[in-house]
Design brief:
Layout (H helix, E strand, L loop, with lengths): L3 E7 L3 H11 L11 E6 L19 H13 L4 E6 L9 H7 L2 H8 L2 E4 L5 E5 L4 E5 H5 L2 E5 L1 E5 L3 E3 L1 H4 L6 H6 L20 E13 L7 E11 L2 H11 L8 H10 L8 E5 L2 H4 L17 H5 L5 E3 L8 H17 L8 E5 L11 E5 L1 H6 L9 E4 L6 H10 L6 H13 L15
Parallel strand pairs: 1-12, 2-3, 2-7, 3-4, 7-10, 8-10, 13-14, 14-15, 15-16
Antiparallel strand pairs: 1-11, 5-6, 8-9, 10-11
Helix pairs in contact: 1-2, 12-15
């Protein structure tokens, strides 16, 4: 059997480097000129209110513009860009496309811009479960998947196979984080139903402790491309220091499709992997006893136990999880917390022995509503919970969490890239 070809190209400029990456893997050879082509970037979320560093979080517009230009030059005329970013609370896909400059692609090349959240979804049977997939993705003749080279605190890596979770409607995305089926056994199935012809991993940046903006980005200057989505992810994972066999969803995909996770079974053209492998951590470290982030213990925080998030926590709650930790830190002034346990997600149960139990999110509230271990429940309802309501509830318990400190943190994570060489917002704001 012929080896899957993956190109690994050093980024010098968006157009020429992308062209090289596509040509090295014969990336367009499976596409016909009259195909309806859907480009799926990764724009998992956006924030128009607080500073949002996009580095390593969303696909660069530089890559999207270069890709559309190449497709147009090659005679492809039916090009659509589609994504379903996290609605907060309403979908804002069009505003995001505008911010990223995609409207110029519409004007110049006639690209159709689609916010999947505004479109129809079709229920698709996966044998044992059902997911609703954007009709535009199902109706495309070919999909070009353009994820980012990033880590993910629940899945280790978020590359092409994971990026396809963005074709699901909100309910199905939440279903991926259910209690009975493993997250890593659900989203890798999506690719079985949509026609991905080419994957291009945008590795201009890579992201440690992703997938959101609280992670830390590094300039990486790589493009990884392949007509084989699995092989592309295997190489992408390897570059970030994760052998595919150690990434649960890639191992699962390999088992289902009779694939090898061994790099030796793939032909990498262009750069050598060895030269670019750079470990980026995917997760926050927790204490062995599961009492909270090790960072809390190092700061001397006591009387507060935060159980580590699990895979049942959806993107909505994940996006407010770090802010919740930051706000607990803001309440710490050297005194112990008054015996507080924090529970999240769909399967964590409150333990005995705490004065107060914070049930963070609708799911934790529902699951623990009759839990006899709880002395005093502090329910933070909402799906996901609202941080200002969280602040108010905590203050009501005498714990002075400060939303403003979270705002300061958001400025800090944005400003840490300011004037840093290579962290050019022009790669996004076209
Ligand atoms: S409360 Fe959180 S974990 Fe539960 S469904 Fe909503 S976002 Fe998901």
């Amino acid at each position: 059997m012929a080896k899957a070809v993956v190109s690994l190209v050093k980024f010098k400029d968006p157009y020429h480097s992308l062209r090289e990456a596509i040509e090295l893997c014969s990336g367009l050879s499976g596409l016909r000129k009259d195909d309806k082509i859907l480009i799926k970037p990764n724009i998992v979320a956006w924030d128009f209110v607080l500073p949002f560093p996009p580095f390593g979080v969303v696909t660069t517009s530089a890559v999207m513009f270069a890709l559309v230009q190449i497709l147009a030059e090659e005679g492809f005329r039916h090009i659509t860009i589609g994504e379903a970013s996290r609605p907060v609370p309403k979908t804002q896909g069009r505003a995001i496309y505008k911010a990223l400059g995609y409207e110029k692609l519409k004007e110049k090349y006639g690209v159709e811009l689609v916010d999947f959240n505004e479109e129809k979804f079709e229920p698709v049977d996966f044998g044992g479960f059902q997911l609703s997939i954007a009709r535009k993705a199902l109706e495309a003749d070919k999909i070009i998947n353009v994820p980012v080279l990033k880590t993910h605190n629940q899945c280790k890596v978020s590359l092409g196979i994971k990026n396809l979770k963005g074709v699901l409607d909100r309910k199905s995305k939440m279903f991926c984080h259910n209690v009975n089926l493993d997250l890593d056994h659900i989203f890798p199935r999506i690719i079985e139903k949509v026609p991905v012809a080419l994957t291009i991993i945008d590795g201009i940046f890579t992201l440690e402790r992703g997938p959101g903006p609280t992670g830390k980005a590094y300039r990486k200057d790589l493009f990884i491309a392949s007509r084989d989505p699995f092989a592309c992810d295997v190489v992408g994972a390897e570059i970030m220091g994760y052998p595919a066999a150690e990434v649960s969803h890639l191992r699962y995909f390999a088992e289902r499709h009779g694939r090898s996770t061994d790099l030796a079974d793939m032909e990498v053209r262009g750069e050598e992997i060895e030269k670019h492998r750079f470990f980026v951590d995917y997760d926050w470290e927790w204490t062995k006893e599961d009492t909270g982030p090790t960072g809390f213990a190092k700061r001397g925080i006591t009387g507060l136990v935060v159980r580590k998030y699990d895979s049942t926590l959806c993107t909505g709650c994940s996006s407010v999880y770090n802010p919740m930790l930051i706000m607990f830190m803001s309440a710490f002034k050297g005194e112990p917390f008054p015996g507080v346990e924090v529970i999240t997600g769909k399967k964590q149960l409150a333990s005995k022995g705490f004065e107060k139990t914070v049930l963070f999110g609708k799911c934790a509230c529902e699951l623990n509503k009759d839990n006899p271990n709880i002395k005093k429940a502090v329910p933070i309802r909402g799906c996901p919970p609202d941080l200002k309501k969280f602040e108010k509830a905590m203050r009501g318990e005498g714990i002075n969490c400060n939303y403003d400190d979270y705002i300061k943190y958001r400025h800090y994570i944005f400003n840490r890239y300011k004037d840093k060489e290579g962290f050019d917002l022009g790669l996004y704001w076209k």
